[in-house]
Design goal:
mainly beta, Jelly Rolls, Immunoglobulin-like, 3 domains, five-stranded antiparallel β-sheet, 22 strands, 0% helix, 37% strand, elongated
Length: 355
């Protein structure tokens, strides 16, 4: 790996630290990997991080070997910046940074050979053109001896924007606008749920779309039910689905929203509006006599004695609708061992208005 590329000296330049420190949440960043051409990888460390609680530290290799960690993606043009600290045999054991296998000159280090010695945190920044690139950090040892702590650290990494691109569709091929599209659900009776609506999340970009999470927001979020997508990470061109049902808990117009969080660089919190109308439910009541309401499957009425072959006493039952919507589809049937010994007349109506 030769042809070192010199970086712009930004040691005195102004810069900003990301709101979310690297490595985020104290975990190994997704997509980072140990290259196949190195002996050891790099680990998480709580020891002396530049910012936040953790940094990355090289797992010190044997003499003549290398520890490396890399990240590969499709980037928009921008800069990769980071902090490096090294504690090594000066001039012999180096921390180095490569873009697509080309070593970048770390100004302030030991010339084009990399950064070595016993050095505190130092800031570096390198331009990255648009396209697919592999960024690699290494700690490389010579064939003999060691000095100081014999390792290197990396922290505060800021990458150029990657080119993943979220697309939310319903139905397939019909794209929603972030925060603008409203999905309407049919009128649904309180206590019931509507037919599910299926949404598609697709990655239209050239980099992986990762860490996808779908959640409900808004004042009436309790009136909607979401089944999360089966995939949290999408390769370029891949898609996944999630479904939403309207299950109103009260009457009237109910509004909420869907928030889709992902690694999309400009639509990382994609919003969808939801709206449905809850209808009051019909409530059946059966009485006999008219002022004596019977319990469901618990009311028993005695018809007295009757001679076989003759007709005994009759009873009149009253069906009422005490709910807020029309009670419809009313029908009456017989059941039980002695069902043939009873005759039932038809109800006066198959539907009853509220009250």
């Amino acid at each position: 790996m030769t042809n070192a590329v010199e970086a712009v000296d930004v040691s005195l330049a102004s810069f900003s630290v990301n709101d979310q420190t690297f490595p985020a949440k104290g975990t190994m960043p997704r997509g980072w990997f140990k290259p196949s051409n190195v002996k050891n990888g790099w680990n998480l460390s709580k020891d002396g991080a530049y910012e936040g609680s953790h940094c990355l530290v090289a797992k010190t290799p044997m003499d003549g070997k290398t520890a490396g960690i890399a990240y590969r993606s499709n980037f928009r043009a921008g800069n990769v910046s980071f902090y490096v600290k090294v504690s090594s045999e000066e001039g012999y054991d180096h921390v180095r940074f490569y873009i697509d296998g080309v070593m970048q000159r770390m100004v302030g280090g030991s010339g084009p050979r990399g950064f070595s010695g016993d050095s505190d945190w130092t800031f570096f920044s390198f331009p990255v053109p648009s396209g697919n690139h592999t960024l690699q950090w290494t700690y490389e040892k010579d064939d003999s001896y060691s000095a100081f702590l014999d390792t290197a650290w990396v922290d505060g990494v800021s990458l150029p924007p990657t080119t993943q691109e979220i697309s939310v569709q319903k139905p397939a091929g019909v794209e929603h606008e972030d925060g603008k599209t409203t999905n309407y659900f049919p009128e649904t009776t309180v206590g019931f749920s509507s037919k599910a609506q299926t949404f598609i999340i697709k990655n239209r970009g050239k980099a992986e779309l990762s860490d996808i999470k779908v959640s409900l927001t808004g004042a009436n979020k309790g009136d909607f039910v979401v089944k999360a997508p089966s995939k949290k990470n999408l390769a370029p061109g891949a898609s996944t689905k999630f479904v939403v049902r309207f299950a109103p808990t009260a009457e009237g117009v109910r509004k909420a929203g869907i928030r889709i969080v992902s690694s999309d660089t400009d639509e990382g919190k994609f919003g969808i509006k939801l709206e449905g109308t809850g209808l009051g439910a019909p409530v059946i009541g059966v009485s006999q006599p008219a002022d004596n309401r019977l319990g469901d499957d618990s009311g028993v009425r005695n018809f007295g004695f009757a001679t076989v072959g003759s007709t005994g006493n009759s009873r009149t039952f009253t069906i009422r609708n005490t709910g807020a919507e029309v009670l419809s589809g009313i029908s009456i049937s017989k059941s039980g061992k002695g069902w043939k010994d009873f005759k039932i007349g038809k109800p006066g109506s198959t539907s009853i208005a509220p009250g």
